[in-house]
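Record type: monomer structure entry
Structure origin: computed from sequence
Chain ID: A
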Amino acid sequence: MPNFLDNLKDKAVDLAQTGVAMSKQVAEIAKLKTANLAEEDAIKKAYIEIGKLYYAERGMAPEAAYAALCEKITTAKVTIEENKSRIEELKSNDEEIQEPEVEIPLADEAPVVHETPVVEIKPETPVESLHEDVPPQF
């Protein structure tokens, strides 16, 4: 009987040691994967910086391989500036436009709505004419 208990004890120790070794291996794999993610993030940031530098230095006269991408950036920047101008225009007109006031009725009362006239705002320049080769985005 002592032989059986010794064998059982040895197997339990082996199992525990295998479990510890496996958990160390899993922990090291997780650590290495995390390190790889950090390195990939560093690569992405470097690519972005390279792109920014190239666009800053050569964006207005790019090499043929980069022309389409530089044009996308330039078009996007123009659109952003137009949107910012429109936002400022809308904010300056905000004083003229008032939201309707709504009173919350009690259970037995009908709602009271104070209406304000609807003001239609039309852009001065149609969006389609700003960028003929770029489809409108909503």
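Annotation 1: Residues 2-58 form the longest helix (57 residues).
Annotation 2: Confidence is low (pLDDT under 50) at residues 127-131.
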